[in-house]
Amino acid sequence: MTDRRHQLAANLAQVEERVVSACAAAGRKREEVTLIVVTKTYPASDVRILAELGVRHVAENRDQDAAPKATACTDLSLTWHFVGQLQTNKVRSVVGYADVVQSVDRTRLVTSLSAAAVRAGRELGCLLQVALDAGSGERGERGGVAPDGVEELAAAVAGAPGLRLDGLMTVAPLAGPYAGRPRAAFDQLREISSRLRANHPAANMVSAGMSSDLEDAVAAGATHVRVGTAVLGVRPGLG
Ligand SMILES: *Cc1c(COP(=O)(O)O)cnc(C)c1O
Q1: Which phi and psi angles does 106 have, rounded to 5°?
Q2: What residue ranges of the chain have pLDDT lower than 50?
Q3: What is the tens place of the pLDDT at every residue in 46-65?
Q4: Residue 142 Cα to chain centre, angstroms
Q5: Would you state the pLDDT for residue 172?
Q6: How many angstroms separate the alpha carbon of residue 239 from the centre of ligand 1?
Q7: Which residues line ligand 1 (CB under 6 A)?
Q8: Is there a contact between 129 and 108 (Cβ–Cβ < 8 Å)?
Q9: How far is the CA of 209 from the centre of ligand 1 (A)?
């Protein structure tokens, strides 16, 4: 094994242990939580190693980096999640490789994703990104729809050809009433998810929790955790 492979295997094992413990503490089965490894800023060679180590879900947040990486990895059986703020001029490219877009946060994006999915002859999974710190009618600083905009946006996705409404995603807010309280934030997301499922029972994915707060997310009922740093290492610079 190469050094990098050893390192990724050890990190993955550690994250797996954390997920297992968090599930046990919450009285949940391990199979209820899917690990998504966020590979942003890291090379396709790392994605390949992760796939060999059994990872099945990867996530990216910038199309410029993700598109060539996904192209280099088409032979791997991976599900690709897009988790970054998405501009409509990138939609066509993203729909070319993403299986799930977790950052759907406005109707204009829904229209654009739908058109691209239909043109590509694909069905695209969509999660609505909820900005728990956004006021009514606003969007979050890092993207996301305000909690009171979820129902309307969900209806738009559910009615859009080529799109499938899979559930909700959030990032624990750094500011506002939820700052430093990821558990409370994830509980709130879970609450919003319950309301959503009253009208959209199949939209049962709850994507929450990153390297620093995955235990809180599992305790709050998340079905998917998105882990970058704890598997791949601290990213150089922004990302
Ligand atoms: C980068 C990123 C993650 C992973 O964060 P880590 O702290 O590196 O685990 C999760 N979700 C989103 C939306 C991200 O952009």
Answers
A1: -160, 155
A2: none
A3: 999 999 999 999 999 999 99
A4: 14
A5: 95
A6: 8
A7: 38, 40, 61, 83, 171, 210-212, 226-230
A8: no
A9: 8
- Which distant-in-sequence residues (6+ apart) come within 8 Å of 40 by Cβ? 59, 60, 61, 62, 65, 66, 84, 228, 235, 239
Number of neighbours of residue 85 by Cβ within 10 angstroms: 16
Pocket test for ligand 1, best of 100, 105, 170, 210 (most atoms within 8 A of CB): 210
- Separation of CA 201 and ligand 1 centre (Å): 27
Residue ranges and CATH numbers for the domains of the chain are 3-232 (3.20.20.10)
User: Among 83, 212, 231, which is best to mutate for testing ligand 1, by the most ligand atoms less than 8 A from CB?
Assistant: 83
10 Å CB burial of residue 113 (0-12, 13-18, 19+) is: buried
> Which residue has the CA at smallest separation from atom 7 of ligand 1?
211
Structure tokens at 154: 């969900």
